[in-house]
């Protein structure tokens, strides 16, 4: 079976995911906000690092933009397997998917809490009941960014964005599109992310932000009024 979700073909069926996720897929609600907004964060020929591939829907949308190269990471091995199916069906050879974690600092093995609704799987036990704990290897994000000349970072990593914003250098990154998880770190954590990224020269950008899906950009000066974006917002 293949579903069409935001223009991306998903070769999966109900047995592959939880009932809640299946419902979101068939209703078109799965990652709907991210799918609408992520294109505003990506420009032709960008080199994009995506953390938290999920099912590969947003990955495939990013990869469809002209000249873009994507490196994507997914911590949950079960989810990574599903994402690879989606990427293989929708993308050419411009996506590399890795089962693993990029974090700030030397490589370690990270405890990762798997949940039946994979979008709740995370590094945080306090996020709710989980099925099992697995060990996932991490690599240093700043080393990866330098090695692949990344200029855009996209992430949906269930709360770990706070640690990365505060502790990674993120040199060379011009835009960051992320989903905030204030239920894990509160409004103080949201402010801490904005403050940390501002110190790196990345400023809240309302042109590509909506609710918890937020774009931070290097200041590119004044822009002419964009009627299309204003209407969509």
UniProtKB/TrEMBL annotation:
Q: Which domain of life is it from?
A: Bacteria
User: Has UniProt tagged this entry with the keyword Amino-acid biosynthesis?
Assistant: no
From the UniProt annotation, give the residues forming the signal peptide.
none
Which Gene3D superfamilies did the record assign? Vaccinia Virus protein VP39
Name the SUPFAM superfamilies on file: S-adenosyl-L-methionine-dependent methyltransferases
Cite a single Pfam family from the UniProt record.
Methyltransf_21
Span of domain Methyltransferase FkbM: 66-183
Which positions, given as ranges, span the membrane?
A: none
The keyword Cytoplasm is annotated on this UniProt entry? no
Q: Quote the InterPro entries the UniProt record gives.
A: FkbM_mtfrase (IPR006342), rRNA_Ade_Mease_Trfase_CS (IPR020596), SAM-dependent_MTases_sf (IPR029063)
- Coiled coil stretches, renumbered: none
Q: Which PROSITE patterns match?
A: RRNA_A_DIMETH
Q: What is this protein called?
A: Methyltransferase, FkbM family
